[in-house]
Amino acid sequence: MAGEWLVAGETGEVLLMAGCALAFAAGGIPSAWRALVELVRERVLDIDLLMVVAAVAAAVVGAPLEGAVLLTLFSISSTLEERALGRARRAIEALMALRPETALRKHPDGTVEEIPSEALAVGDVVVLRPGARVPADGVILAGRGTLDESNITGESMPVAKQAGAQVFEATVNLDGVLDVTVAKTIADSTVARMIALVTEAQAAKAPSERFSAWFGQRYTVAVLVGSILAFLTFLWLGYGRYDALYRAATLLVAASPCAIVISVPAAILSALSAAARGGVLFKGGAALETLAAVDTFAFDKTGTLTTGRAAVTGVVALDGSQEEFLRLLGGLEAQSEHHIAAALRRDLAERGLDPVPVADVTTHPSAGIVGCYDDQKVWAGNPRMVERMGASIGYPALQALADGTQTVIYVGRGATTLGAVTIADEVRDSSRAAVDALRSDGVRTIVMMTGDRRPVALRIGAELGFRPEEIHAEMLPEHKVSEVAQLSASGKVAFVGDGVNDAAALARADVGIAMGAAGSDVALQAADVALLAEDMERLADAHRLARRAARIIRQNLTFAMGAMAVLVTGALFFELPLPIAVIGHEGGTVLVVLNGLRLLTDPIRRDAS
């Protein structure tokens, strides 16, 4: 440009030619080489070839500066695209960086040794000090502490954990000293599976990506042929050979489909990366696009809308002493492996109560449990156990419990009933907000499916805002599959389950979504989308993100096609200058990429919203 406009005479001409030669070499040779490699190896006509041909045509007709500007801007825009899309792909590098390089392995004699994390084996015990990252998936053997799991589940609030709780690789122990038994090596860990899933997702093509690639390849051939025909037409219309070639080169640049081809993957990759950082893993762009089109959601109840864990919801002690009543019940259930017993033990621990020592404990299947305390027979169970012990439950307070929809456990001593507790599966704290968010987002149909009795299903459904006709109870797994198939007849259906006993329904739905998939191999295999955290609101966030991605893809395609139509019209009928065509083409390409990258800042992570 300096040789063309600033320096006159022979020096200016030398400067112009030297600068153009340098621009052609730096911008043209790499592009031409890439295009030829693609043509020979993949039988694909690359868009780079269009730019090189257009630049050479410009030089042939005596406009080397325009050709140099074209190659320079094309190189700059290609670099910007690679750097921009690289931001989306760096999710994998970020996951790799989370892994601690070393771990403190504890030997049976109590000594501690620092070893590389990859040397850990299943069954090893590692010591986690405050501030340390978890080196591998495992279970807390001893200790109590708070962990930051935001890197894995996207949950911004720390999670309190104690013995028996799962911990995931790369999460951070904020306080306390924990002994953790390694459950999986780093090759099979949560981070390894996330890396594999993100890699597969970014490699898998969404329908719109496949279409844009298919369109771009065929359209590129059409542009080359069309430019040749345009050159011949301009010659036929009386233009000089140089003018006809110049206008054909301008048309070649204006009609190149770079913006159309790049607009879809820019949005898809950005959305996939944003979702991964928020604890939502999509198995490719196809799952993302399908979720955006879903207008019916079917939810499994247990473990999805509810916690899947029994909890004590009510206590009635007929003698008025709840603490002594619960200590006695705790002593009975201390030796039982039933899930109800586990709920009672957790309730005692939360209340800070110690169970009394109950001896000679015997379990009676389908009835309850019997033991001995203070030389008296004590018991707990359902009405069959009450009848067996010759006791009565005809008390008003107990009758009110029996009329409800929760499980009732009666407790007594000999033939005397001491009271009762109610046990129920708890609704997940985030479930109601998630269901409401989906309804407000325009989801047409939302149903709940469960194998529980209808009265229980109606109680849970009422808490979540479901109407009776939206609740399907007493369903076997095959019934859920049939119901999903019926719902699919009227639109796209997403089924949300725990990824284990709902695998068939997850596979049958248009989009299968697994809850709490961190640590669940079955969930990642059966579902199209995995929510790593047990937070139902992430589902609503993922649906919103998918719909936003679909809108941005439409915006990009509309803008890219519109800009190309304007430039082609100018090149054919209004003698559009080649530099303007270059700026319009490359500028449009960069704009659609930047528009797609807006999805990287989506507030799907709680701490980013």
Short account of what is shown:
The protein is an alpha+beta fold. Helices cover 53% and strands 18% of the residues. The mean pLDDT is 83.
Please tell me about this protein's structure.
The protein is 53% helix and 18% strand. The chain is built from 22 helices and 22 strands. The two termini are 47 Å apart.
Give, in spatial order, the strands making up the sheet with the most strands: 10-22-21-20-11-18-19
Evaluate the radius of gyration.
33 Å
Helix content: 40-55%
Number of strands: 22
Q: What fraction of the residues are assigned to beta strands by DSSP?
A: 15-25%
Describe the secondary-structure layout.
Blueprint: H1 2-6, H2 9-41, H3 47-60, H4 64-98, E1 102-106, E2 112-116, E3 125-128, E4 138-142, E5 145-148, H5 150-153, E6 159-161, E7 166-167, E8 172-173, E9 178-182, H6 190-203, H7 207-236, H8 241-254, H9 258-277, E10 280-282, H10 285-293, E11 296-300, H11 301-305, E12 306-317, H12 322-333, H13 339-351, E13 359-364, E14 368-373, E15 376-381, H14 383-389, H15 396-402, E16 407-413, E17 416-427, H16 431-440, E18 445-449, H17 454-464, E19 471-472, H18 477-488, E20 493-497, H19 503-508, E21 511-514, H20 521-526, E22 529-531, H21 537-573, H22 578-597
Parallel strand pairs: 11-18, 11-20, 18-19, 20-21, 21-22
Antiparallel strand pairs: 1-2, 1-3, 3-9, 4-7, 4-9, 5-6, 5-8, 10-22, 12-17, 13-14, 14-15, 15-16, 16-17
Helix pairs in contact: 2-3, 2-4, 3-4, 3-8, 4-6, 4-9, 4-22, 6-9, 7-8, 7-9, 8-21, 8-22, 9-21, 9-22, 10-21, 12-13, 16-21, 21-22
